Amino acid sequence: MYVDPEIIRLLAFLIGVIAFAALNAAYLVWLERKEAAHIQRRIGPKEVGPFGLFQPLVDGIKLMTKQLIVPAGVDPVLFKIAPILVMVPAIMSFVTIPFSDTLVARNLDIGLLAIFAFASVNVLGLLLGAWGSRNKYAVISAARVVSQNVAYEIPMLVTVVTLVMISGTMNLSKIVGLQMGGFWHWNIFNFSASPLMPVAFLIFFVCMLAETNRAPFDMAEAESELVAGAFTEYSGMGFGVFFMGEYANIVIGASVATILFLGGWDCPFGLFPGVHWFLIKMYFLIFTVIWIRWTYPRTTFYGLLNLSWKILIPISFVNLILTSAMLKVF
Amino acid sequence: MVSLFTVEGLSGLLFFGFMGLTLAGAIVATNARSLIRSVAGLALCFLGVAGLYYYLNSPFVALMQILIYVGAVCVTIIFAVMLAESSELKQITSRNGLVGPLAFLASGILIFALAGLALRTQWRPAPCLVNRGTVENLGQSLLTTYSMSFELISVVLLVAVVGSLVLARAGRDK
User: Fold this and answer.
1) Domain residue limits, chain B
2) In Å, what is the CA distance from B169 to each residue of A150, A219, A268, A308, B160?
């Protein structure tokens, strides 16, 4: 029986991508707990394995052996489909992310658009899960998720449009290719395109925090007000899959920031570019995301919306106009 | 006969899968008892249509379908339903027994007529070929040949936004 090598390649990438997403979810929980502990002058998980490194395995076994409780009042179909709707688009986004010049499953010409298209399904999953669980906290959380995502999608997309204007392509590999050869070529320091590029990076990073519902913008699952927000009624692996989806989305956000602004797999000093540089930058961004969560308190909901509509959107539009003017003039 | 374990074979299979997904989503959207489930069916239908676009060599349209219809329209509808529908499970029971068969008959005639029309018309070739996901051709034709319709659509959207703001304001003053 003849099997196309392309199919085997795609299958290998599919398994690799799912394994990468799951492994990241497991070990980012460990990193989060360790980092939080050290920021709070504790030790964190330390009993299972050296430095608590096997803790995620034990946690996973615990989550998988717990009973899946489907409460009596819920809409069973929507309740069960919601975690999948959060997880699957995240995995789909990994397909087009180039980890190095050869390590990419499908180098789409419109890869950037693909990632944002799949990311927009995430909200639908949270909404359906929240409404399906018939819980007042979950519904409040859903309302917050929608207004937050709509508010922060605008500055994020405007910033991305600026980047696309500079690069002239939506192919992620080509965007990285334009930034090769040392850190002064990276888009974050691309002052000849727009003097506001570091600000654009900051806007993108803040929007990424908000889009992935991370502190200080974690209004959707504000534990002190909403129990667990949209996840209130979920137990065992239902909750686990939501959690994995959240971490997968953080990985994707950090990857996109790395590709767009930090030169992807390019080495800052022009030596040995490769997948290791991509991972170093990506994990540094993720480390920062966790660092911010354990440093700053949660904002208020109006503070959150005001930040987007009154500060980030105007600045991102200024950056867009400035960039297009400079592209036209120079 | 194309072998199943080639790229063409698998994409053919997936194309049929997306066709099924579109139909299943449409059936759920029209027959579900709760409104939210209808919207979920609608989202499924949109996803299926996006898949069809993708395998018809228009990845850009496919992704726009997901971004706009699934990510924005469905979310907006669900949000509206969440705010408006306080007590669900209000079933429409008073329904004439003839409605179902007549609806089937009407939709059958419609499908037959549309299919006949599509098959017999001499189609003109598309004004521009948007293949391999190139956005340039699409953007250029939108801003040159079709700039009038493009601008008109944005005016319609602007009117809708301003109108909803006016309505919301009027409600707030009461």
Assistant:
1) 1-86, 134-174
2) 21, 27, 53, 22, 14
CA distance A326 to chain B (A): 21
Residue A76 CA to residue B162 CA, distance in Å, equals 39
Give, as one character, the DSSP assignment of residue A67. Answer: -
Q: Could you tell me if A142 and B54 are in contact, meaning their C-beta atoms sit under 8 angstroms apart? A: no
The residue in chain A having the minimum alpha-carbon distance to the alpha carbon of residue B41 is A78
C-alpha B145/C-alpha A294 separation (Å) is 54
**What is d(CA A229, CA A51) in angstroms, rounded to the nearest whole number?**
31
Q: Do B79 and A120 touch (CB under 8 A)?
A: no
Specify whether the CB–CB gap between B58 and B135 falls below 8 A.
no
Q: What is the interface size between A and B, counted as CB pairs within 8 Å?
A: 82
Give whole-number Cα distances, A110 to A196, B61, B62, B119, in Å.
25, 11, 11, 32
CA-nearest of A15, A2, A25 to A240 is A25
Q: With a cut of 60, say whether residue B142 has pLDDT above it.
A: yes
| ipTM score of complex | 0.77
Q: Give me the pLDDT at residue A265, please.
A: 82
| pLDDT at residue B94 is higher than 60 | no
CB contacts of B79 in chain A (<8 Å) are 127, 143, 146
Q: Give the nearest partner residue to B71 out of A3, A75, A117, using CB atoms.
A: A117
- Kindly indicate the confidence band of residue B106, based on its pLDDT and cuts at 50, 70 and 90: very high
**Residues of chain B positioned with their CB less than 8 A from the CB of A143:** 79, 82
Under an 8 A CB cutoff, do B60 and A113 touch?
yes
Residue B126 has pLDDT above 70, yes or no: no
Give the number of other Cβ atoms within 10 Å of residue B161's Cβ: 10
Tell me the whole-structure pTM to 2 decimals.
0.83
pLDDT in tens, A253-272: 999 998 888 887 877 776 77
CATH 3.30.70.260 fits domain B1-86:
no
Q: Under an 8 A CB cutoff, do B67 and A120 touch? A: yes
**A20-39: pLDDT as tens digits:** 888 888 888 888 888 888 88
